[in-house]
Write a structure and sequence with these properties.
Helices cover 74% and strands 0% of the residues. Helix 1 packs antiparallel against helix 2 and helix 1 packs parallel to helix 3. The protein starts with a helix and ends in a 29-residue tail after the last helix. By secondary structure, it is mainly alpha-helical. The protein has a domain of 93 residues. It has three helices and no strands.
């Protein structure tokens, strides 16, 4: 039983270390998204995948030997691991929102470009005045929602 507890402690320590690295790369991914650094984003995603796989393997090992009533220091490690995972989850949520925002900006840019390249079918209204599109020329990275 003592051997299992020591092994469990070691696995939890490795999981915490891997989660710390994962957290670091998720923060780096956010910075790459903000800067628009595509190369950095690709490298970061590769590292994230590597640490995700390591965490999954460690978690499987931990589940194999997890005792019914672990000692206090094991519970403390488990709580520390939960806190790390919560931080990682929050950062992933922020990254997802940044990606959605980037897609909206790209979509707006593409629509503006296509409006310039594709001529409008009716440039004049029934009174002979030029139709004005209020959204032409406005490219904003801030999208107001109701």
């Amino acid at each position: 039983m003592r051997k299992e507890i020591l092994e469990l402690e070691q696995i939890l320590e490795q999981e915490i270390t891997a989660c710390s690295e994962l957290e670091k790369y998720i923060t780096e991914k956010k910075n790459c998204l903000v800067k628009g650094d595509l190369e950095g984003l690709i490298k970061t995603d590769i590292e994230l995948e590597k640490y995700n796989e390591a965490i999954i393997k460690l978690e499987e090992k931990r589940k194999e030997i997890y005792p019914d009533n672990p000692p206090l220091h094991i519970k403390t490690l488990k709580e520390k691991l939960k806190k790390k995972l919560t931080k990682i989850e929050n950062q992933n949520t922020i990254n997802a929102e940044l990606l959605k925002h980037a897609l909206k900006v790209i979509e707006g840019s593409i629509l503006s470009i296509t409006k310039v390249l594709v001529p409008e079918s009716s440039s004049y209204n029934s009174k002979g005045k030029i139709n004005k599109d209020e959204n032409i020329g406005i490219i904003s990275s801030i999208v107001h929602e109701a």
